[in-house]
Automatic annotation (TrEMBL):
Family: Belongs to the short-chain dehydrogenases/reductases (SDR) family.
GO biological process: monocarboxylic acid metabolic process
Pfam families tied to this protein: adh_short_C2
Lineage: Bacteria, Pseudomonadati, Pseudomonadota, Betaproteobacteria, Burkholderiales
UniProt cross-references to InterPro entries, sorted A to Z: KR_dom, NAD(P)-bd_dom_sf, Sc_DH/Rdtase_CS, SDR, SDR_fam
Residue ranges constituting the Ketoreductase domain according to the UniProt record: 19-184
CDD domains xref list: SDR_c
Protein's name in the database: 3-oxoacyl-[acyl-carrier protein] reductase
Top-level taxon of origin: Bacteria
Amino acid sequence: MSATTGTTMSTTSHNTPAAVAVITGAARGIGLAIAERLAAEHHAVALWDRDAAALDAAAQRLREAGARVHAIPVDITVRAQVQQAFEQSAAALGTPTALVNNAAILGRSGPTLDAALDDWKRAFDVNVFGALTCAQVVVPPMVAAGWGRVVNVASVAGKDGNAFAGAYAASKAALISLTKSLGKELAEQGVLVNCITPSAADTEIFGMYGEEEREALRARLLARVPMKRFVRVEEVAEMAAWLCSARCSFSTGAVFDISGGRAVY
Ligand SMILES: NC(=O)c1ccc[n+]([C@@H]2O[C@H](COP(=O)([O-])OP(=O)(O)OC[C@H]3O[C@@H](n4cnc5c(N)ncnc54)[C@H](O)[C@@H]3O)[C@@H](O)[C@H]2O)c1
């Protein structure tokens, strides 16, 4: 798919002068909301997603809102694609100053004792190793520049566990731990690494289920949220935008709850 570039937006004192954010899984849902929020905060946005058609539509929407956009289809589990996406996005927009590791899959649900190892491996391939690969490719220039922000989109499931979604929950726990390790490693280099742990948002991540199964899952998920509603994607984006900005200056390796009261630690 071709790269897409829009018009230039002005800069703001909230961010570095040439704020450029890479957002994975940006074609829809939480990733798209984060991209829109960051663009509104005067970031140029590099949209990475494996779904080329949805990516085109997302890029179009952002361009129409006046954002500087580079969109490129990439499967984050394939290192060569991540490297190529990085080079093309950096050439189009400038070297990234922020990385939002948002792409993930829910994977197959079912009893953990019956789970196929391959299903667990697939969840870890995307949700953990994909995020690690993106960090390994995108973050070194931030370290060299002495400034950068990484936001890993984990889940409250990574803290609490979720019955019948064992692979997803374990992969998000690993992403939380990756955040803490990398945050500590880069703490003196000007690159802050944090993660957010939303409770359920009503997005297409549940799209593989039939309507009946989806409704039952929704009800189960909401029953655990004291506020008794889904988090809005814009609420997650608000938190991510702060974590990508210079306004966040003394938090790293940290886990930011956005679960309507569900998380107890
Ligand atoms: N929706 C929720 O209830 C919820 C709750 C907590 C955390 N989260 C997390 O928020 C993030 C976004 O979730 P969402 O609900 O918007 O999901 P979504 O399914 O709506 O969007 C995810 C996007 O990631 C992309 N993607 C998946 N695998 C990819 C790969 N290998 N390479 C590139 N792109 C890939 C998909 O194409 C899709 O566009 C995920 O990390 C998810 O785990 C979601």
